[in-house]
């Protein structure tokens, strides 16, 4: 059996294989952030693929931390049964699930939240020009309040029966804003780059128990050096690993970039071969004592297997690929590599539609987001016609 299909543990949580469905915001929640039937059925269908772990999309833990109109929330106890609906939809298919918890900080969308932006230090949102996009620095009291509210969200996730949580510490969102020299100019104790994330992890463990698994989405390189700006680079991020493990992190989900360099996060179809950012991830395997999830346009089953076999990472995360073909793990296990419908990294149906604030679709999988219609059967044609398709080209 290939190593990628062997079990692995994240803390006390055992996964049946090493294929991870990564968190992707889909804009399927309602206007308050509650899970919708469309969202729940989409997760149920994707879980059929047999993933070792399914990480549910970025979920805002405070109303001023949202970034998209249809983003899921986890900021009030009233959301508990809705969150549990998502858990049970995934568990029904025999898959373990975590939830990614996030506050966007300076990168929150004021059009969505209708609230002022807050951040570790005063900074501007590159996608929200003008006064509304200027964040103010939180006071020390507000930082402590933010920590409390994060922990409340993690405790609510555990109560909703998620098997683990993922703290979103990358892509320039709030936690990584505390960790980056680019966005953290504070003069108090939270000006120390690891003060906020390590304190957060310790508090989560204290409230939820030492055995409750904490996954940390981790910035290896913000790539800000490309723009001549200070930020998290590979040498700095390597020094973060051990203190975070000591604080209680059970697994790292490795990633790159911030808002200003998002092209290094979502690999385009022009990056050849796929998973080029694995070169940034491999060095962390030598220094981490907990499992590592690596990702970045892994749409080839053989590439996914090779990354694990070569020891570059412990688990392979798939984002856009799980939308293109939710059955990817099952087809891999059956040796049907050529039957896998590959993501073409066009970013039109997913990323582009998300940033346009409409519901996510997939260019190669029409059924994504349409699963809830299966209960009623396919829509009936109003005027039947006989159609001949000649060719089709790229379509």
Helix and strand layout, with pairings?
Blueprint: E1 8-10, E2 13-15, E3 19-21, H1 37-47, E4 53-60, E5 72-73, H2 80-91, E6 96-102, H3 110-113, E7 118-119, E8 123-124, E9 134-137, H4 140-159, E10 164-169, H5 174-179, H6 195-208, E11 214-221, H7 234-247, E12 251-256, H8 278-281, E13 292-294, H9 301-309, E14 315-318, H10 320-324, H11 328-333, H12 348-355
Parallel strand pairs: 3-4, 3-14, 4-5, 4-6, 6-10, 7-9, 10-11, 11-12, 12-13, 13-14
Antiparallel strand pairs: 1-2, 8-9
Helix pairs in contact: 1-2, 4-6
- The order of strands across the largest sheet is 3-4-6-10-11-12-13-14
How many β-strand runs? 14
CATH architecture: Alpha-Beta Barrel
How many H/I helical runs?
A: 12
Structural domain count: 1
Please give the share of residues in helix. 25-40%
Specify the overall morphology. globular
Rg: 20 Å
Structural category = alpha/beta
Largest sheet: 8 strands, parallel, barrel
Encode the helix/strand succession as letters.
EEEHEEHEHEEEHEHHEHEHEHEHHH
What is the residue-averaged pLDDT? 93
Strand residue percentage = 15-25%
What do we call the CATH homologous superfamily? Aldolase class I
Would you mind describing this structure in some detail?
29% of the residues lie in helices and 15% in strands. The chain is an alpha/beta fold. It has a single domain (3-376), classed as TIM Barrel (Alpha-Beta Barrel), CATH 3.20.20.70. The longest helix is centred in the middle third of the chain and has 20 residues, at 140-159.
Features:
395 residues, three-stranded mixed beta sheet, TIM Barrel, eight-stranded parallel barrel
């Amino acid at each position: 059996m290939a190593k990628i299909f062997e079990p692995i543990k994240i803390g006390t949580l055992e996964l049946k294989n090493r294929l991870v469905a990564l968190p992707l915001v889909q804009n399927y929640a309602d206007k308050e952030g509650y899970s919708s039937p469309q969202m729940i059925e989409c997760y149920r269908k994707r879980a059929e693929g047999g993933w070792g772990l399914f990480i549910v999309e970025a979920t805002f833990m405070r109303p001023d931390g949202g970034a998209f109109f249809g983003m899921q929330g986890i900021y009030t106890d009233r959301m508990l049964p809705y969150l549990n609906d998502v858990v049970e939809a995934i568990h029904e298919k025999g898959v373990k699930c975590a939830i990614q918890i996030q506050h966007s900080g300076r990168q929150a969308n004021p059009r969505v939240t209708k609230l002022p932006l807050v951040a570790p230090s005063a900074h501007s949102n590159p996608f929200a020009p003008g006064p509304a996009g200027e964040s103010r620095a939180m006071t020390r009291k507000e930082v402590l309040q933010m920590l409390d509210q994060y922990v409340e969200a993690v405790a609510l996730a555990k109560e909703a029966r998620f098997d683990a949580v993922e703290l979103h510490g990358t892509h320039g969102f709030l936690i990584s804003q505390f960790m980056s020299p680019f966005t953290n100019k504070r003069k108090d104790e939270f000006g120390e780059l690891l003060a906020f994330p390590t304190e957060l992890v310790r508090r989560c463990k204290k409230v939820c128990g030492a055995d409750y698994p904490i996954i940390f989405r981790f910035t290896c390189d913000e790539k800000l050096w490309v723009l001549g700006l200070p930020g998290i680079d590979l040498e700095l991020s390597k020094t973060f690993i051990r203190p975070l493990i000591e604080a209680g992190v059970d697994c790292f989900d490795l990633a790159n970039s911030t808002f200003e360099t998002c092209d290094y996060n979502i690999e385009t179809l022009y990056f050849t071969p796929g998973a080029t950012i694995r070169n940034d991830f491999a060095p962390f395997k030598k220094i981490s004592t907990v499992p590592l999830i690596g990702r970045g346009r892994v749409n080839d089953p053989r590439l996914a297997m090779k990354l694990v076999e070569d020891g570059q990472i412990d688990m392979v995360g798939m984002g856009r690929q799980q939308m293109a073909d939710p059955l990817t793990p099952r087809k891999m296990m059956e040796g049907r590599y050529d039957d896998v419908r590959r993501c073409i990294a066009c970013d039109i149906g997913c990323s582009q539609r998300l940033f346009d604030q409409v519901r996510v679709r997939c260019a190669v999988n029409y059924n994504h987001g349409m699963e809830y219609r299966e209960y009623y059967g396919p829509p009936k044609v109003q005027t039947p016609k006989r159609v001949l398709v000649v060719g089709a080209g790229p379509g």
